[in-house]
Amino acid sequence: MDYGIDPHTALALLEWQIELGATEAIGETPVNRYEAAPVAVPPVPAPAMALLPEVDPVLVARAAAAGAADRHGLRAALAAYKHCELKKGAKSLVFSDGNPKARVMVIGEAPGRDEDIQGKPFVGRAGQLLDRMFASIGLDRAAPDPARALYITNVLPWRPPQNRDPEPQEVAMMLPFLERHVALIDPQVLVLMGNHSCGALLGRKGITRLRGHWAQALGRPVLPMFHPAYLLRNPLAKREAWHDLLMLQARLRETA
Ligand code: URA
To answer: What Pfam families has UniProt attached to this entry (predicted)?
Structure first.
């Protein structure tokens, strides 16, 4: 049915109504839609349009993520999301890799060049180091056994241009999708790789102080660790990373 308004305006109107407190799309009196003639809603006049709030990308993301019933639906919701500029410059939507039944979910920052080309997280040099790190405590993204497996994703699913840091607004609009992703996978433990994933889920940065201490986010234990890209640049910090991997292994053994 064409009501003479474009989809963006329709969405803005809907969000506006939600902000005003509307919770159900029903009227006070029943309408027999088989008998009622279609009502043409006149276009919103220009002065009224100026009063409409801008579409809030975070609200749209929340609604889209909440509507995803499983991880395939969540991937489709992300693919359909139009408010993140990063999508325009990226080749692929990098959603996840590994075993969705894994006890451990690893959250990185954003895809780099190799991930963008292959459409999978952590497949470049940092990813190869990540695989070796987890292999040292018996965890493998390809393992069919959930007790030995990993599930891997990132805060941002699209590669930022020239691998620049994520903007706060980009993180804010991707956070509802990440939170839903964690809820759908329901891992026992989250491992946050580096500052940006700590910023997104713990609301804190400063990985040197955060790493090696269990924290809590989204109702589950969270272990911040040095990002493998940092370890490639600072090999001496692998000592701390090894300590953190052993902490993770001990926790998994305790709760096996
Ligand atoms: N760094 C990340 O944080 N994620 C990737 O997928 C690759 C590199």
So the answer is: UDG (PF03167)
Residue 18 lies in a domain: no
26 in a structural domain: no
Which range marks the domain in which residue 195 is found? 57-254
Which residue's CA lies nearest to atom 7 of ligand 1? 122
pTM higher than 0.90 = no
41 part of a folded domain? no
| Rg of the chain, C-alpha, whole Å | 22
Q: Which two tokens stand for residue 68?
A: 């995803």
List per-residue pLDDT tens for the chain, 256 residues long.
444 556 655 665 666 565 555 555 655 566 565 565 555 555 656 666 566 567 999 999 999 999 999 999 999 999 999 999 999 999 999 999 999 999 999 999 999 999 999 999 999 999 999 999 999 999 999 999 999 999 999 999 999 999 999 999 999 999 999 999 999 999 999 999 999 999 999 999 999 999 999 999 999 999 999 999 999 999 999 999 999 999 999 999 999 8
Number of structural domains found in the chain: 1
- Distance CA(172)–CA(177), nearest Å, equals 10
Q: Is the C-beta atom of 131 inside 6 A of ligand 1?
A: no
CA–CA separation, 236 and 82 (whole Å): 42
How many of the other CB atoms lie within 10 Å of CB of 13?
15
DSSP state of 237: G
Rounded CA separation 173/6 (Å): 23
Q: State in Å: Cα 118 to ligand 1 middle.
A: 12
Ligand 1: which of 105, 128, 133, 154 to mutate, judged by most atoms within 8 Å of the beta carbon?
Answer: 154
The CB of 152 under 6 Å from ligand 1? The reply is no
What is the CATH number for 135? 3.40.470.10
